[in-house]
Amino acid sequence: MQQRQLGADGPMVSAIGLGCLSFGGIFGATDSNASLRAMDQAWDQGITLFDTANVYGMGISESVIGEWMRTRGHRPVLATKAAFVNGPPRRVDNSAAHLRAELEGSLRRLGVDHVDLFYAHRRDPACPPEELAETMAALIREGKIGGYGLSEISPGTLRRAHTVHPVRAVQNEYSLWTRQPELGLIAACAELGVAFVPFSPLARGALGRDAFDVAVLEPGDFRLSIPRFQGRDWALNQQRLDGFRTLAAARGVSVPALALAWVLAQGDHLIPIPGTRIAAHVADWDGADRLNLTGEDRAEIERLLPRGWAHGDRYSDDQARTVERYS
Q1: Annotated catalytic, 148?
Q2: Which positions carry the signal peptide feature in this UniProt record (predicted)?
Q3: Of 56, 119, 148, 174, which is the active-site residue?
Q4: Average pLDDT for residues 3-20, to the nearest whole number?
Q5: 327 pLDDT tier (thresholds 50, 70, 90)
Q6: Termini Cα distance of the chain
Q7: Phi-psi region of 91 (alpha: psi -120 to 50; beta: other; left: phi over 0)
Q8: Domain ranges in the chain?
């Protein structure tokens, strides 16, 4: 797989990473064996960046990654996150004491003495970005983390933190149906030498190989609470997505590969991390990094899925409480 640099001072990694959120069961029941097979498939395809967080299954995702590394003898570039404090209500804590304690737990579950990238999972309004950057810089000096990142933030927060200590990566949702980072965040990352890591680049499965059927989602599936997957909004979104599926078929590529190729084409500093717990889904991504979109391809994709086409918000009001909004 082609390689991209994880920030100006970071390691080279695969152009596409593996998002490990679903290892914890947020999108339905799973088991460690399925997750292990998904990681095997990813590694065989040349994927070297694995992305997780302490709250993914409340430690389950990190633990199964640790098991995979122990049993396979592989060491991917590891990214994990912390900041959430379970409630009720759920809140965000960027204090040095909280981040340090949570990082130590992550290292134990992963079975390593450091991670390559440690994100503040969300911004805590009570903690200035400059203070957060100082905490992360101390962890870097101590060898606990190789670099730090920020997630679901605005360009202003990035710039404030970066002034104190360079940010290695920013992780926000970005895909053909979530385009807000085009309002300055992707450009700010490029200007500062920061990697931009799109999560959910396949629209939480809506841009998977097969047409997505909300009716078959298991009770408790996170997507059932997202407005875009509900009622009339979802019906309208399906109509748009069907056109993109027709285009992928005409090009002779999988829907996920075409969607990932579009994300990769938005800048050399973008490293998308599609997520899955199913090995066959990982296989659908193969070749996306080598798929060159023509001017005609780009124009047709823009016609089918222009900026702002998606109906419904990407989060419920409660889920959006911890996300920085900007325009």
Answers
A1: no
A2: none
A3: 56
A4: 98
A5: confident
A6: 35
A7: beta
A8: 3-208+266-292
